[in-house]
Design brief:
The chain has 5 helices and no strands. It has helices at about 5-30, 35-40, 50-65, 70-105, 125-145. It is elongated, with a radius of gyration of 18 Å.
């Protein structure tokens, strides 16, 4: 089967792509990010594109094979790991980076060897992950419901 006709690919890619477009618009409108490339390749922000893509994949596999099949179970577990990493591990790392940067700015700590402060936009809030989750489910369902005869499941 061609990748261009692959329902699972398009469920994953469309969810990721739509999330990235939304993230770019929000990032540029709110001036939280300075450039298109920073928004596209940076971490964090609304919505979580990693969550959207993985939920799109998991949802499309559940639709195709059922929830008890090994494929959606495996991707579901990986999706939970990604969501936990985004909201817990990276979010906490972001808090640490903000604290360390504040210490450097207050001159309580020396500037890091490379002369740069720590990146502070690393993780996601629960709301950002929830919106990514919703986008992933919607993309998988819309691709299923819309008449795309070229997509093979």
């Amino acid at each position: 089967m061609s990748l261009l006709k692959n329902y699972w690919f398009w469920s994953t890619f469309s969810a990721w792509f739509i999330s990235q477009i939304i993230k770019i618009i929000i990032g540029l409108v709110t001036n939280k990010r300075r450039s298109f490339l920073t928004v596209l390749f940076g971490s964090g922000g609304m919505p979580s594109a990693h969550t959207a893509g993985m939920v799109g994949l998991t949802t499309s596999l559940i639709i195709t094979y059922g929830a008890s099949s090994p494929l959606p179970v495996i991707t579901g577990i990986l999706t939970l790991i990604i969501m936990t990493d985004a909201t817990a591990v990276r979010f906490e790392s972001e808090r640490h980076a903000r604290f360390l940067n504040r210490m450097v700015e207050e001159e309580r700590e020396p500037i890091p060897d490379d002369g740069k402060l720590f990146r502070t936009n690393l993780g996601h809030t629960m709301a950002q992950v929830a919106v990514g989750f919703a986008i992933g489910v919607c993309c998988a369902l819309l691709l299923l419901l819309l008449p795309f005869p070229i997509l093979q499941k």
